[in-house]
Amino acid sequence: MIVPAVTRRRALPRGLVAVLLAPPRAVTRLRRHPPPERAALIGLVALALALVVGGELFGPELVPPGAQIIPLLGGGLLLRRAAMRLLVLLVYACLVYAVLDMTLEVVRPGALVVVVATAIVAYEFARSREETGLTGSSGDTFLVELRDRLQRQGELPRLPAGWRAEAVLRPAGGGPFAGDFVVSSLTDGGRRLEMALVDVSGKGVDAGTRALLLSGALGGLLGSLRPEEYLPAANRYLDRQEWVEGFATAVHLVLDLVDGSFAVESAGHPPVAHFAAGSGRWRLLTCEGMALGLVPHVSYVAETGRLGPGDALLLYTDGLVEIPGRDLAVGIDKLLGEAERLVPRGFEGGGERLVTQVAGDSTDDRGLVLLWRQG
User: Fold this and answer.
1) Homologous superfamily of 154-373
2) CA geometry: angle at 207 spanning 204 and 210, to 5°?
3) 124-170, pLDDT tens digit by residue?
4) What contacts 143, CB < 8 A, 6 or more positions away?
5) How many CB atoms lie within 10 A of CB 3?
6) Are the C-beta atoms of 351 and 369 separated by less than 8 Å?
7) Which class for 271: exposed (0-12), middle (13-18), buried (19 or more C-beta within 10 A)?
8) Are 182 and 198 contacting, i.e. CB atoms less than 8 angstroms apart?
9) Which of 32, 137, 203, 317 could cysteine-pair with 367, CB 3.0–4.6 Å?
10) CB-CB neighbours of 56 under 10 Å
11) What are 163-215's pLDDT values in tens digits?
C-alpha cells in the first residue's frame, strides 16, 4: 500500500506562537479603556507584533529587536499606566523570544538594554502624564487651550481716542506657558481703565496653570471692588490657595481716561516708570508693598499722578530686568535707557522693542505693559 506523501507546512516557532497568542488574552481588558486609548493600544500592539514577524521573515539585520522602542515611545505619549503595562509586557515577551530564537551574535545585548531602558522611561512618562491628567491627545489639547486662554486674557481692551497701550508677554526659554499675565477692564462706562500685571512664582506648565486660575480670579475682581481693596482681596485669595509656591508679585493701575489721573499700588513688584513729556525724562514711582500670598492681612498704599499729552507709564516684571549676579537696579537702568530711545521715534511698537533689546535671550518669564497718552 502506497501512502501518499503529505506536504507539511513549516510551523511557526513555539515561542513566536506564544507571543502571538498573548495579546488576545489581554484584549478582554481593553474594554475598560476609552475608545481612543483602546485604538491606540491595539495599533501599538499590532506594530510590536509586526516587528516580531518581520524579524522572523526578513531577519534581524533588516528588522532588529531594538525596533521595539518605536511602540514603546508611542505608548508613553498615548497610553495610561494600565494600558502601558500591557504594552511593556508584550514587548518584553518579544525580546525574550528574540533571545531564545537567535544567537547573541545577532541580538546584541546593548540593543536589549536600550529597549528595556526605553520601556522604563516611557512607563514613567505615561505615569507622570496620567497623574497630571494630561494623558493622550486630550492632554495636548488641554495644554493648547491653556496657552490660548492665557494669551486671550492678556489682550488689552480697546481704548478711547488719544490713548494707546501695548502688552507683551514672553515665556521663559521660548516655551508656550508663562507665569506672567495681565488682566484689564474698562469700568465706569469706559471712563476708567483698571489693570493688573502679575508675576506668579515658578515657570512652565505649573506656573501657567496657577496663572490661569489666578488670572480668572483677579480679572473678576477688576471693577467689582474699590481700587484700594483690590490688592488686599487678591492677597487673601492667594493665601487661601495654600500652594507650595504660593506667592506672586503684582502692580495694580487705575487710570482715568478723561482727566489722565492715575493711582498705582505695588505688591512686591518692580517700580513702575513714569515718563513726563514736559521734562523728557523717566522717573520711578516709589510705592511699595508685600508680595501676594505671604501673609493673610496686608494693606497697600497707592501713589498717584497724572498723565498729560505725550506722557507714558511702563509696567514690567522682574524677568525683564533681572541680571544674574548683578543688582536689580542695573537691569532697571538698562530698561530705562532703552525706553529713552523710544521718545524720539514714538512709543508705537515700543513694547516689543523693549523686551527684545533688554531681555531678548532671558531664561525667565517676561511681561511688560506700555501705556501712553498721545500728544
Assistant:
1) PPM-type phosphatase domain (3.60.40.10)
2) 145
3) 877 776 665 555 555 556 556 656 666 666 689 999 999 999 999 88
4) 134, 176, 177, 205
5) 5
6) yes
7) buried
8) yes
9) 317
10) 17
11) 999 999 888 776 667 788 999 999 988 899 999 999 998 776 677 778 878 88
Q: What is the DSSP letter of 309?
A: T
Q: Are 195 and 153 contacting, i.e. CB atoms less than 8 angstroms apart?
A: no
Coil, strand or helix: which one is 129?
Answer: helix
The strand ranges marked E within the chain are: 163-170, 180-187, 192-200, 248-256, 261-267, 273-276, 281-284, 303-306, 312-316, 366-373
Domains in the chain: boundaries: 14-131, 154-373
Look up the pTM and report it: 0.66
CA distance 239 to 20: 57
Q: Contact 291/233 with Cβ under 8 angstroms?
A: no
| Terminal C-alpha separation, the chain | 117
Measured at the CA of 257, the angle between CA 254 and CA 262, to 5 degrees, comes to 35
Spatial distance between the Cα atoms of 163 and 186, rounded to a whole number of angstroms: 13
For residue 167, give the C-alpha cell.
502688552
What is the rounded distance in angstroms from the CA atom of residue 300 to the CA atom of residue 264? 10
Q: What are phi and psi of 278, to 5 degrees?
A: -65, -45
Closest CA to 223 of 249, 200, 244, 252: 252
Contact present, 83 and 32 (Cβ < 8 Å): no
Instruction: Say if residues 197 and 251 touch (Cβ distance below 8 Å).
Output: yes
CA angle 15, 17, 20 (to 5 degrees): 115
> What is the CA 6 to chain-centroid distance, rounded?
67
